[in-house]
């Protein structure tokens, strides 16, 4: 059976995400504070932000950037990210967001795969972004360093030319707004094609459940380069005329100080931050009384942890569920339903349908009369679901059904009230502190080591990080290698969150007759 949303259908206007966010700003709203730089407290009003967006769009157009071009944006959560993001879209181009943590190799791969013609980065990231851009064949004049650096144009250079924002025309229903990278259900990271309409839809769909409004001061520590931060923080909060407090990196005392000093009302986190909020002694030293709710997403949050955070902060704890391929939100615990089990992912957002399918029999799972249903794979359909993977028809057709349902690769159960619980993951993806770690990438890297004959990487449950990558390694005959050497070899080549954190040597990697790694056997072996 197909389940539909308790919110029913809302109308999704056919406009760009930039118009959805900045359209219809009233005089009073223009004077409100849109952005606060968390570390310094510096403020940007809606009028100033809109002016910056238009000036950046003008500067980009003067450099020949427009509809059909892809621009890479590689920066932490700073106010300039927001202006640059909408400036690129307002110029008619598409943004491929690059995680601040990316290595030079990661960045080069994403630039090449997405066909980016320009890179916007920041000076602290130049040690990676400089070589990354060079490896991808981007000339120095195709790299803009937002805060300025010797030998590069800055954001001020780009926006200061006095160029008016261009007239651009595109269809928001088909024009790509962003191409974030996600490994999906299998393999290496792939470009996820999300249109303006996908993003507009997800902002409008999510807020009836999340309930942000203009009085809110929203803490933005989750990266804008990840779809959770991009949609729920950057776009949703600004569309509701809230104030967004940007925090460039997570550091617990600084994070708590900013919540206290900025009196933030809404705090969006991933489970490892929830663990810190529940357990770390220093939390008690800060006044967090302005917080009205904490919403956790990006990895599993269990109900006892959710309760511990709620009790300690005397606040509401919500959970959301999403996936890059869904722009990302499909489920949230609604703010006005404190009765719902905090360990569930809540209800379907508006205009969204789901099916739960038994992975052995293919049978549809319905709502039970009592208790919880059998587990099955979650499939989602709605206007937030991606168009497909960039230049990858095979991965697209393996993920999207012809009728529009997307395979999430997550195993869920539904209870008699219709609440959904994520109980397992079918896909190979590992979530380290909510960050994606694609095993295929680590396996390919391990295989480049001369002493390694074969390798497989799976998730090892971990209290603080949720999951950590564990490598199973088969050595070449007569070769010798220690676990520490394997860890060090991987660490040299990948971003910190992708490091292998456990190693086990085995004789042979279990594989199916078609050659697929039997990850469940390895995970099972691990548990036993
Ligand atoms: C168990 O993580 C995300 C998006 C997260 C998000 C966004 C808006 C959460 C709440 C919200 O309001 O995207 P990806 O693509 O990085 O990772 C997707 C995968 C899911 O398929 C699932 O395996 O991350 C896992 N995941 C979760 N698992 C995401 N949220 C949850 C959750 N519980 N609440």
Automatic annotation (TrEMBL):
InterPro entries: AMP-bd_C (IPR025110), AMP-bd_C_sf (IPR045851), AMP-binding_CS (IPR020845), AMP-dep_synth/lig_dom (IPR000873), ANL_N_sf (IPR042099). It comes from the Bacteria. The keyword Membrane does not apply. Residues 441-516 form the AMP-binding enzyme C-terminal domain. Residues 31-390 form the AMP-dependent synthetase/ligase domain. It holds the Pfam family AMP-binding. The keyword Signal does not apply. GO terms for molecular function: ligase activity. This is 4-coumarate--CoA ligase family protein.
């Amino acid at each position: 059976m197909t389940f539909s949303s308790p919110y029913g259908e809302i109308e999704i206007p056919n406009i760009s995400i930039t118009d959805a966010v900045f359209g219809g700003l009233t005089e009073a709203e223009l004077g409100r504070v849109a952005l606060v730089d968390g570390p310094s407290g510096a403020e940007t009003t809606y009028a100033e932000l809109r002016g910056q967006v238009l000036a950046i769009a003008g500067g980009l157009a003067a450099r020949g950037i427009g509809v059909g071009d892809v621009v890479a944006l590689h920066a932490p959560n700073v106010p300039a990210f927001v202006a640059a993001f909408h400036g690129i879209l307002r110029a008619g181009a598409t943004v491929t967001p690059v995680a601040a943590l990316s290595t030079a190799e990661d960045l080069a791969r994403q630039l090449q795969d997405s066909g980016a013609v320009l890179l916007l980065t920041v000076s602290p990231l130049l040690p990676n972004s400089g070589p990354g851009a060079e490896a991808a064949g981007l000339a120095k004049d195709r790299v803009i360093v937002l805060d300025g650096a010797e030998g590069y144009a800055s954001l001020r250079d780009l926006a200061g030319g006095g160029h008016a924002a261009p007239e651009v025309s595109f269809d928001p229903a088909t024009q790509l707004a962003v191409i974030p990278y996600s490994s999906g259900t299998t393999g290496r990271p792939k470009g996820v094609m999300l249109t303006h309409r996908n993003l507009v839809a997800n902002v409008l769909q999510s807020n009836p459940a999340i309930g942000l409004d203009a009085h809110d001061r929203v803490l933005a520590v989750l990266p804008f380069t990840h779809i959770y931060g991009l949609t729920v923080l950057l776009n949703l909060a600004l569309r509701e005329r809230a104030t967004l407090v940007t925090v460039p990196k997570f550091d617990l005392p600084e994070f708590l100080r900013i919540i206290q000093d900025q009196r933030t009302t809404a705090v969006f986190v991933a489970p490892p931050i929830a663990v810190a909020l529940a357990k770390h002694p220093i939390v008690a030293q800060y006044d967090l009384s302005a917080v009205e709710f904490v919403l956790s997403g990006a990895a599993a949050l269990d109900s006892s942890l959710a309760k511990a955070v709620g009790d300690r902060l005397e606040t509401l704890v919500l959970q959301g569920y999403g996936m890059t391929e869904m722009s990302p939100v499909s489920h949230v615990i609604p703010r006005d339903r404190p009765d719902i089990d905090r360990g569930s992912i809540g209800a379907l957002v508006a205009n969204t349908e789901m099916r739960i399918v038994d992975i052995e029999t293919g049978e549809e799972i319905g709502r039970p009369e009592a208790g919880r249903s059998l587990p099955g794979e979650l499939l989602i359909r709605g206007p937030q679901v991606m168009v497909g993977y960039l230049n990858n028809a095979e991965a697209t057709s393996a993920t999207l059904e012809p009728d529009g349902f997307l395979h999430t690769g997550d195993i869920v159960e539904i209870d008699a009230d219709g609440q959904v619980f994520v109980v397992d993951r079918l896909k190979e993806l590992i979530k380290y502190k909510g960050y994606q770690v694609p095993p295929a990438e680590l396996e390919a890297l391990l295989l480049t080591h001369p002493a390694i004959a074969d390798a497989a990487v799976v998730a090892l449950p971990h209290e603080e990080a949720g999951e950590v990558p564990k490598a199973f390694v088969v050595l070449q005959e007569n070769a010798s290698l220690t676990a520490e050497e394997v860890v060090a070899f991987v660490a040299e080549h990948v971003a910190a969150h992708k490091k292998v954190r456990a190693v086990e040597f085995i004789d042979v990697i279990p594989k199916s007759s078609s050659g697929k790694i039997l990850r469940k056997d390895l995970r099972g072996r691990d548990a036993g």
